[in-house]
Amino acid sequence: MQERQNLSTPARPVRRGLMGFPSMPVENPEEKWSAAFGSDIDSPCTAYLHIPFCRSRCTFCNFYSGTGTKQEIADYAQLLIREIRDWGPRIRGTVNAVYFGGGSPGILAPGDVRSILSAVRSALPLANDAEITWETRIEDLDDAHLDATLENGVNRFSVGVQTFHTELRRALGRATAKEVILEAFQQTMKYNQAAVTVDLLYGLPGQTPELLADDLETVCRAGISGFSFYRFHVHPGLRLAEQIRAGQMPQVPPEEACFELYRLCTERMTAAGANKISFKHYAFGTRERNLYNAISAWKQPCIPFGLSAAGRLGGFRFKQTSSISDYRDLVLRGEKPVAAAGQMPKDFPVSARIGGELNCQMTLHPGSVLPFVPEPLRKRAAELLKEAAEVQVAKGTMFPEQFGGYRLTERGCFACPAVGSEIMEKFAEAWRK
Ligand code: SF4
Q: How far is the CA of 58 from the centre of ligand 1 (A)?
């Protein structure tokens, strides 16, 4: 799933954070897109392709896109291919990672999967070692989809498991039993062509340490390449939130219990020798690179494709139209279906480095940030960064380490989004008069 697009209005500022920056909406998004897209990209770059259809609505999910008929999905696939073929060859850089998200890309018919992937591979300037991730529900990891994806360059699957606990999965609207999931992983891994990673959630309603421990044992034994470990938040408006309110589902664990769940994962993965490649991702062995997420964590350019897709380029965030009729008209006219753009704040390129470092390395090294601050602001920025880090040390979320750097404690890793936001907001004061 893609991070939420956040084109804030001046009346509703959004804080800087690991997931995004406040951006000022602009009135001429098409012009901004043309200028940004016409410039060379000299950094790592990703492409995000959105498939806005789901088979059904999962009760816990904030990314539901709506179901579609077979014909609507097939028509959408043709439009997406047209957009890829029109705009892919004009990217002025190298694409290091491609991510198919949704919705649920696995909903596409295998023939459309082949055509879309073929368009991506022929039209996009992919790096030789480009990561191509296919987000999928377990139900769609069938032979036909595996053949279609693996024969056409997919080298990483991201499977939304959430929990292996069959009863809890069913309460969340996921019908597949644990045994079926594990069998699907075995089938996928037999091909020996792609990393298989899963999303696990902690802080689910009624999730006890014992339930989570069982999930962690399962990921250790499943032979998969890695997993993401996301904290579950109940968003108002979700069916699950209503079920909790109505007493049909247990409450989510309180904050301190969630921290204990996070710590349980760290301890189990340390014992398993897993590699912690971000505050919320683990890798077993060497196949899992997590490249798309890592490049995104550093807020490097991202070229959006598809309905409602969001991207980042040239100091702007872009959001493509969410209207299928507008999308169709614009794509058929050969125009990029950008509907909104927001200008990033002046500190964005430097603050993004702080977010990337905290996210992926769980450290903060002023020495790797300050050289990128404009010289007149550097002294003030250095003071603010130290001040912000020392506040975190006092809170127990960071500790100083060698060479003037800081490292997140276990509690700091758990609270990484909040820690990152506080540090970046303080640091950005250097740009204010
Ligand atoms: S979890 Fe995936 S399939 Fe389920 S509603 Fe959300 S986006 Fe759709």
A: 6
User: What distance in Å separates the CA atoms of residue 226 and residue 133, rounded to the nearest whole number?
Assistant: 13
Q: Which atom of ligand 1 is nearest to the CA of 137?
A: 3
- Cα–Cα distances (Å) from 37 to 34, 223, 237, 270, 336, in that order, read 5, 41, 36, 43, 10
Residue nearest to atom 4 of ligand 1 (CA): 58
* Any atom of ligand 1 within 6 Å of the Cβ of 63: yes
168-218: per-residue pLDDT in tens? Answer: 998 888 889 999 999 999 999 999 999 999 999 999 998 999 999 999 999
Domains present along the chain, CATH in parentheses = 24-297 (3.80.30.20), 348-431 (1.10.10.920)
ipTM of the complex: 0.96
pLDDT tens digits along 15-60: 888 888 889 999 999 999 999 999 999 999 999 999 999 888 788 8
- Ligand 1 atom nearest to 162, measured from its CA: 1
DSSP 8-class letter at 265:
H
